[in-house]
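Researcher: Please translate sequence to structure tokens.
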Amino acid sequence: MSASPRRSPVTSGLARVMDELVPIPGTRFRVGLDPVIGLVPVVGDALGTVVAAAVFVEAVRNRVPVHILFRMGWNYLVDAALGVVPFVGDVADAAHKATSKNLRLVDRTIAEGRYVDTGVRGYVLRAVGAVGLMLLVLLAMAGLALWGLAALISWFV
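Model: Translation complete:
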């Protein structure tokens, strides 16, 4: 494994477009399409999921340690939790920038030469298990949010 990151330019471009495309005049802050497309139900979440998957693929392709995959998953779980609240969640999403955080984490891990030196099958099984566990947590959060929404609606009805 080389000391410099082998990140795909496509993934770098996606992170830039999603998190840092346009500078806000008079500030050092940049905003991307992620909070804007997040305003569109289903489409925004679907596109965000595709970008997150691309970042995870980069991490797995470079055999990033599984505990780093969990940290990346945590960033996306926080991003998803912030996005639950309409409009406010999109503003928080613009500040959180999970995709850029995760790419920096992958780059730093690769640059430091940290990777899992094991057979492909063993690593992929652990990586898929880690990502699967994070998806289960995300689905549980979604289920709790729907249950809470249903309870709230029934309280008003």
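Researcher: Any highlights?
Model: The beta strands are 22-23, 30-31.
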